[in-house]
Amino acid sequence: MALDRSRKVPLPDRGIIKYKSKNATYVYHITRIYRNDKGKPTNDRVSIGKIDEETGMLIPNRNYYEFYASSNEQHKQSEIESIKSCGITYAIDGLLNELGLIEITRRKFPKRADQIIALAEYILCEGNIMSYYEDWYDEVYPHGNVKLTSADISRVFQAIDYKSRMDFFRTWIYARKQSEYIAYDVTSVSSYAKGIEALEWGYNRDKESLPQLNFAMYYGQQSMLPLYYCVYPGSVPDKTHLEYMLRDNELIGCKGIKYVMDRGFFTADNLRFMTDAGTRFIISVPNSTLFAKELIDKYRDQIVNRSECKLGKNLPYAKSVIREDFGMRVKAHIYYNPAKAAAEEEILFDELEKCERALSEMAEPPARSLHYDRYFKINRSKDGGVGFIRDNEKINAIISRLGFFIIVETDFEASSLEILMTYRQRDVVEKSFDDLKNELDMKRIHCHSDETMDGKMFVAFFALIMRSCMQNKLRTYLGEIGLPFSSVLKELRKIKYVCTRDGKRLLSPITKKQRDILNACGLSAEDLPTWLAVPCIV
């Protein structure tokens, strides 16, 4: 049956369920209602199309006509077999070819490469609810024109085994030449699933009361691309897992790595692990450590408001010193920012006033674990209440260290300004985590076994590479037009072709905006018909 994708019909008034995905609302016809083995009501259903957002009507698929239309009406359909979007896939394929990723994926997953890439493209466009893939396929020409059922998708995930993943990472990292600093960080991903071993209770960054797994990632600061990830149990603290990542470096051929890490990974053990592994690093130091306090106290007067220490306009003051600490030789950079000091001082005095109000309402002295003794001398008053006064010596010591921050590194040749700029670039990995969890919809894992979870996380990581690469290519263009990345995907999705029953594929007219986007990606609209590999009209 030829199918007219431009046709719209009224929604059936009964027997349907609606499911909203990232970009569309799909409609399902209920074929059976029953109770499952546990006695809970459930149903079997079949997709019959999606809702047109402008009219609220149904854009039907083939299943619709099986349930709601007569055979005579089916024969009235046009000679158009299908209308599909192809712009996003064309752009992605071009960028992946430039990175050599299509070739790498086909070498490491010879039987599943096109399926992996198609599923990654789907996650990029729609999120991680895989049950909508078949509906998406009806609208989009995916990489390799891959059509997959839910059962097919599960088999793809299960086929992405540990050895193949590590082989992929080894080749992918080697292709990046290992010449850049790598931002290393960890995030957590939650799930309601019961059959995933790595799901455990731990510190949840999203403040969700759910078991989680931890997702550690390497992100190239120069290439601006994800390079490697590792999943581990949610109960394992971030700072203790670095040792295992260092061991993985042997497996992925990542010796002599240069890390950039935030203060959450600063421990004496981690510094020794990295040094023993021949790893160079740049790491921020918590101001609460004795190491930081001693450095600030020693060099404060040599830094504050000294013109020779000023790094430049709108930049902090700085001084660097070589130290023998933690059983190794390191270079410490002590930075001072007056604006940061003023902001932190305001926060400090707000905290002091808040604590004073709380203490005045207490009937008993607070437990030491509440840390009121950081700021106050506390005792029992004559009337039986809580007596307290500010401990000005402690408060003054805190004030004297406000506005300071310290970065320790093992490069030795770079200046304080160069180290600061390199460290500030590490926020790319935090932005990438945000993309993974929110834009790619991986904040929650919808899997029920370790095998499918491992495969799905790999495909999501692949989708993150796609998104990062596109963002890198489009950064200047998006800055000029002032539009978000999501608007580019929507615009590319408008590039469509019509497939007729006799096998012809006719490309829709391409707008100037669409041409500009393709040009920003390093692609030409004129080459799209060749990529589509059929006679087309541009």
Architecture blueprint of SSEs:
Layout (H helix, E strand, L loop, with lengths): L15 E5 L4 E11 L5 E11 L6 E3 L1 H7 L2 H5 L4 E6 L1 H13 L1 H8 L4 H14 L6 H7 L10 H10 L2 H14 L5 E10 L21 E9 L5 E8 L4 H14 L6 E4 L6 H9 L3 E6 L4 H14 L13 E9 L2 E9 L1 H23 L15 E5 L5 E5 L1 H9 L3 E6 L6 H9 L2 H13 L10 H32 L3 H9 L2 E5 L4 E3 L4 H9 L7 H5 L6
Parallel strand pairs: 6-9, 9-10
Antiparallel strand pairs: 1-2, 2-3, 3-4, 5-16, 6-7, 7-8, 10-15, 11-12, 12-15, 13-14, 16-17
Give a verbal description of the structure:
With about 550 residues, the protein is α+β, with helices and mostly antiparallel strands. Among the domains are: about 15-80, no CATH class; about 340-400, no CATH class. The chain contains 19 helices and 17 strands. The chain has an eight-stranded mixed sheet with strand order 8-7-6-9-10-15-12-11, sandwiched between helices. A four-stranded antiparallel sheet has the order 1-2-3-4. A three-stranded antiparallel sheet has the order 5-16-17. Helix 4 (about 100-110) crosses helix 5 and helix 4 runs antiparallel to helix 8. It is globular, with a radius of gyration of 29 Å. Residues about 70-80 and about 535-538 have low confidence and may be disordered.
